[in-house]
Amino acid sequence: MHILLIHQAFAALDEAGGTRHHELARFLVQKGHKVTVIASPVSYLTGTSSHKRREVIEGVTILRAYTYNALHKSFVHRVIAFFSFMLSSFFTGLGVWNVDVVWGTSPPIFQGVTAWLLARLKGAKFLFEVRDLWPEFAIAVGVLKNQTLIRMSLWLEGFLYQHADRMMVNSPGYVEHVKARGARSVELVPNGADPAMFNPHDEGATFRQANGLCDSFVILYAGAHGISNDLGVVLECARLLANNPVFRFVLLGDGKEKAALQARAQEMGLENVLFLPSVPKTEMAQALAGAQACLAILKPIEAYKTTYPNKVFDYMAAGRPVVLAIDGVIREVVEQADCGVFPPPGDPQGMANAIQFLESDRYHANILGMHGRQYLVEHFSREQMARQLTQMFAEMTGKPA
After folding, report:
1. What gap in Å lies between CA 52 and CA 368, rounded to an integer?
2. Pair (117, 243) in one structural domain
């Protein structure tokens, strides 16, 4: 089979960002299938640009289509970036031949239009993947307010759901949402992680020494620094624990809110908070190994109860206990795995109490971390997800898996 993936924010393993699609694509290639990815040359997290217009990484062909660089700019600029990629990826896709499945992924939802149109022109099947509920999340956090844009976005969402030959979601919390809006056939291929990328017994000495963390109990957050991530709560938690020098908070990543968070931390006089830039997935294992606990947080919004944040599965694969300030379906995973603690979202004192609990009994914290590792291996390994995806493509095309 030849699968064409349209994904503006695609990140290879040597780049910063979510690598779900590269990991799945590698597996497909190993099984003898051909995968072509059309991606942006502009990193969604860092804004850095790649000058390579075509490259092959572990058998996966990556084509870079022009994208307006709107890193950390206004919503209008981001929409321009989305539309620029939608158009350029379409023309790039016209030059890709003998395609069996065109795979579109949202967000941003606009690239789904490219994938649908290319699939129809090429006589290929159209797979549409939902990784976040857009525009619902954008409306919930107040990013999308214009009623005309909201109506247009909701129409586009329904159009793509109804015209997809198969829908794929990465969280069980999304299934009913997409079905209610016209999806005919929905497959859950959840987020997960490759346990082989992480060593739960590694203590991360290199990372800890490089960042002056050798004697600290490190609470690490790895991911986007955006409006949805509610990292101001983490700063308030750090303030509550500032009198105990053993606690160090490491916020690793980039995003629109990072500069404001750094300024706020400085104003608060927080010497127990360290901001670090994004790292590629190939370096993430060492960073997580250097932590005693790992943090996942989102704003306390009802819609976010539907999410399966990918970082939680990386934390579990690394064998680190999860401080989970997110309610809903991901809480069910952490509780079933018995791999972390749950401070109420939006509650700095509750988060501080949870972190103190883990630090007070480090042996128990380590046990929680190993529980998470084992549960991930059994239920959420990337290889299991890739097999499921391969079988789905085989069903769609009638070709061997």
Report:
1. 43
2. no
Query: Same structural domain for residues 38 and 186?
Result: yes
User: Which residues lie across from 340 on neighbouring strands?
Assistant: 322
Residue 54 CB: number of other CB atoms within 10 A? Answer: 10
Q: What is the CATH number of the domain that holds 354?
A: 3.40.50.2000
With cut-offs at 50, 70 and 90, classify the pLDDT of residue 72. low
Let me know whether 219 and 175 are in one domain: no
- Please tell me the distance from the alpha carbon of residue 303 to that of residue 324, in angstroms, as a whole number: 16
- DSSP code, position 343: P
Query: Is 216 found in the same domain as 73?
Result: no
Residue 372 near residue 337, CB atoms below 8 Å: yes
Geometric angle at alpha carbon 281, from 334 and 369, rounded to 5°: 30
Q: Where are the beta strands (DSSP E) in 278-350?
A: 293-297, 322-325, 340-341
- CA distance linking residue 231 with residue 45, whole number of Å: 16
Single out the residue of 380, 284, 385, 384 nearest to residue 332, CA to CA.
Answer: 380
Same domain, 204 and 318: yes
Total domains in the chain come to: 2
pTM exceeds 0.90? yes
Is 2 within 8 Å of 33 (Cβ atoms)? Answer: yes
Report the alpha-carbon distance of residue 135 to residue 177 in Å, rounded: 12
Domain carrying residue 129: 2-192+381-397
Q: What are phi and psi of 275, to 5 degrees?
A: -95, 130
Residues 328-386 pLDDT 10s: 999 999 999 999 999 999 999 999 999 999 999 999 999 999 999 999 999 999 999 99
Chain segment 178-196, per-residue pLDDT in tens: 999 999 899 999 999 999 9
CB distance 185 to 166 below 8 Å:
yes
